[in-house]
Task: structure prediction
Amino acid sequence: MTTEETEPTPSLADLRREIDRIDEAMHRLLIERGEIIDRLIAVKRTQESGSAFRPAREADMMRRLVERHRGILPLDTVESIWRVIISTFTYVQAPYRVHADLSAGDAAMRDSARFHFGFTAPFVPHMSAQAAVGAVHASKGDIALVPATGIAGAGAWWTVLEDEAAPKIIARLPFVERADHPAGLPVFAVCHPATDAVVRDVEVWSVKVSGWSAAAARAIDTLAEVVAVPDGAFDGAALLVSLPSGRPLAAVTDTLVKAGVSVRSTALVGSHATRYRVAHEGAPPVPTGR
Result:
């Protein structure tokens, strides 16, 4: 006799009891996680060290989750569950609000905010990136979500991050990109980072120039990801330049000068973890971006 012939087929009641057992075990583990967070608060005193958001650790957790996932449960569901768990326990450590710039569209930004930060953290809508970042500037641990791509009429919102005491870009979401991501709008997360929260896989610079042109944009296209908006005189521009680790800003500024551009100023306004992309469900995440 085969094993299949000797083992009785489980009843629906048996299978439901197994599901109940697993559900109870998951709940107990969440309670245990909460107890550890309680101890973490006492040890690290996160409420005295700025935002409790740790994007480098979260990005690594999301990549590992994608790598080990298998089975019939959709990856979107698994990622959203983990995002709620992580963001809620972050909120428990140090309550924060999520300020969102809705100028790129209400639905896409709300989806991104709720997917990545859940419903426990209060959601505060704004009609410009400047307003969202300004609210975070005046806060202790709040987070602003701003579209990571250029939005017509948005202006150079990132220049307010140049001051040393200003908040900084500390993450680019989603951590793991895919074509059908339910919250796929590329956004920067901006906050007052704790010292151990900074990760410099990709540095983000504010660069102001004169003599900006389509030829100059093409010259640096392969070196960095750039958002450019008019600034000052007719040929002036404010650039938001994202550079991968190991590529100095001089590689961009020298190329700009050779293209006939004058570089007026540069300032580091943040950094974030390497972006990863999943080609299709079940495929491992691979680094993306320049």
